[in-house]
Amino acid sequence: MSIHKNKFAIVVLAGVVLAGGGMIGYKFYQEKQNEAVIETQQKVQEEASVVASGIVETKVISAEMNPTQENIEAAEEAVSSLTESEEKQKLLNSIASVKEEFNKNLKVKEEARLAELEDDINQAKVALGIDQAPSEKDLLEILHIMTHQKVRSEEKWGFVHITEVNLLAVREVLQENPAFNQNIDMLAIVTDWLNNDFGNIVAEHNSIWKMKNGSVGKAYGILSPSEEAALVKEQFGVQQ
């Protein structure tokens, strides 16, 4: 009986030992598996980081070789996605240098362009009636009837052709009279239009129209290119 008990105890003990060994082995296997997964993830992240850095550097080089507003903005956005590092700071410094030089050249070109158009701008001021002691009301009215070239409304009274020279003439007067921009930022509006940005022109028309206590002629849309071209030809006798 005692022999049987001893055998049973040995079997049980062996089972416990084997089970314990199995658990230890499984735990060891799991740890190795986890280490392998972590190592793989780290490798993937490192490779992705290398690829991302390569893409960013390409965008920065593109901005350096061809410094346009679009390329500079793309490079800035790409670099901002990198984690903080010495390399990121170097790239930011490179972009800052490119941007500074680009803006400097842009200013020189703009000044040359304004000098070239000086006589035309002065003539436009005379034609628009803002060459001598213009008022805020005068400028509001000019912008209001400029919008008529592009907005859709039931009634329109008066038109001023939206041209670069007319806009530059208005901008100069607004720059010389900053108080005119306190009620509505006319200078910002003119700047957008000079950059061919007319996305807010309906709201801009209605803001000025409301300031003028308008009751009829609220804008509710933008003319199609063909409609605008027809209006320009009808009102100003020129092709759009």
State the distance separating the first and last CA atoms: 114 Å
- Helical/strand content category: mainly alpha
Overall shape: it is: elongated
Major sheet description: 2 strands, antiparallel
Description:
- This protein is an all-alpha fold.
- Helices cover 73% and strands 2% of the residues.
- The protein is built from nine helices and two strands; from the N terminus they run αααααβαααβα.
- The chain has helices at 2-65, 69-80, 86-116, 118-128, 136-147, 164-176, 186-194, 201-211, 225-236; strands at residues 151-152, 221-222.
- A two-stranded antiparallel sheet has the order 1-2.
- Helix 1 (2-65) runs parallel beside helix 3 (86-116) and helix 5 (136-147) crosses helix 8.
Which structural traits does this protein have?
single chain, 240 residues, mainly alpha, two-stranded antiparallel sheet, 9 helices
